[in-house]
Amino acid sequence: MPENFRMWFEIIFTLSYLIILWILVFAMKKRMDDVDTGDKKNAHRFTLAFGLLAFGDSFHILGRVAAYALGGLDAHPQIFGAPVGIVGVGSFATSVTLTFFYALMLPIWKEHFGKEYNRFSYFLFAMGAIRLVILFLPGNNWQGASPYNYAIYRNIPFWIQFEDASHACACPLFYQLLMFCGTSYLEGQV
């Protein structure tokens, strides 16, 4: 596949994703008054989670688009007099917000299904905290090419958090989100 085609496909696809994500976040916020009182707490958490996802992905996606516009993904424009690897900064931002996104899924699941926190729940929160610590280690080299070993280190807790969360709550919650958006948020909006 020609590099130019791949670049434009990535830009169009990721910007489309980002626009749709922000539309969903604003639709969720706009329709919050339509949510039953008993579901408001989780609806706010969902809106916050997806707002964080959109915010972090905005840094990542817009950083990549800007880097392409500046000549390539290794672009380091001067910001406040210092060279900044905008793709790396965007990757860092989306890594942090995605960690919080998955951490928010646990209280949503707990509230929705009437579950209590247990050792497993705290283990998932600990995986998120460990991931955040690893993300801030200087060895990640967010300004340049990330060393392969750090990419593995920072993603092990995330993988555990995601895998366990997806089995425990993310899949049913995703279904609930689709039902919630389809019947509450987007009703009459098409």
SS content category: mainly alpha
Describe the sheet with the most strands.
Answer: 2 strands, antiparallel
Number of domains: 1
Strand order of the largest sheet: 1-2
Broad shape: globular
Q: Report the mean per-residue pLDDT as an integer.
A: 83
Task: Tell me the total number of β-strands.
Answer: 2
Report the end-to-end length measured between terminal Cα atoms.
Answer: 36 Å
The proportion of residues forming helix, as a percent range, comes to over 70%
Number of helices: 5
Q: Which regions are unreliable across 5 or more consecutive residues at pLDDT < 50? A: 168-190
Description:
The chain has 190 residues and is mainly α. The chain has one domain. Helices cover 74% and strands 2% of the residues. It contains 5 helices and 2 strands. The protein has helices at 3-30, 40-69, 86-113, 119-135, 148-185; strands spanning 78-79, 82-83. Strands 1-2 form a two-stranded antiparallel sheet. The longest helix has 38 residues, at 148-185. It starts with a helix and ends in a 5-residue tail after the last helix. The model is unreliable at 168-190 (pLDDT under 50).
